[in-house]
Design a protein that fits this description.
two-stranded parallel ribbon, 112 residues, 22% strand, alpha+beta, two-stranded antiparallel ribbon, Arc Repressor Mutant, subunit A, 4 helices
C-alpha cells in the first residue's frame, strides 16, 4: 500500500485529489496539508519577487521604491507593490527617511 500526502492551497481541490487517490488501487491518503508558502497575490510573479528580494538583500542600508525600481529595472509602482507585499508578509520592514522638506520617504529593509 502506497501512502500519499495531498498538498494543495485550495481545500476543495485537495478533497478531489484525495478522492481520486482513495479510488486508485494500492494507494491511500494519509493526510492533506496546505503548502508551506502562501501563493503570491494576483498580479505578482515569483521571478519578479526574487528580483526585488535580491535588490533588498544587496542593500542592507535599505531602498526606497524609486531606488528599488532603478536597481531592478522595474517601474516605481511595480517595485512598490512587491515591497509592500514583503512588508505585509513580515519579510521586510519600513523606516521613514526624513529629508529637508516634504513628506518623509519610505525606506524598505529586508528582515530575512
Amino acid at each position: 500500500m502506497i501512502r500519499v500526502l495531498v498538498v494543495d492551497d485550495d481545500f476543495m481541490v485537495a478533497k478531489v485529489h484525495s478522492g481520486y487517490v482513495d479510488r486508485t488501487p494500492n494507494f491511500t491518503v494519509f493526510g492533506s496539508r496546505r503548502p508551506g508558502t502562501a501563493p503570491l497575490p494576483k498580479g505578482l510573479t515569483e521571478q519578479t519577487a526574487e528580483l526585488v528580494k535580491a535588490a533588498l538583500t544587496d542593500h542592507p542600508e535599505g531602498l526606497s521604491a524609486m531606488e528599488c525600481a532603478h536597481a531592478t529595472s522595474l517601474s516605481r509602482p511595480s517595485a512598490r507593490r512587491y515591497l509592500e507585499h514583503f512588508v505585509e508578509t513580515g519579510r521586510a520592514e519600513v523606516r521613514l527617511r526624513y529629508g529637508n522638506t516634504g513628506r518623509p520617504e519610505r525606506q524598505y529593509h529586508w528582515r530575512g
